[in-house]
Amino acid sequence: MKGVLTWIGAIAVGYVLFNSIARSVANNLSLVKATVKVGSLSFSGISLKVNLHIKNNTALAIPVDGFSGFVHYGINPIAPVDIRKSYVIQPQAISIITIDSLIEFSKLSTAISDIIKSGEYLNALKLKGQLAYESISIPIDINLNPFNA
Question: Reduced to 3 states, what is the DSSP secondary structure of residue 76?
Answer without folding.
Answer: strand
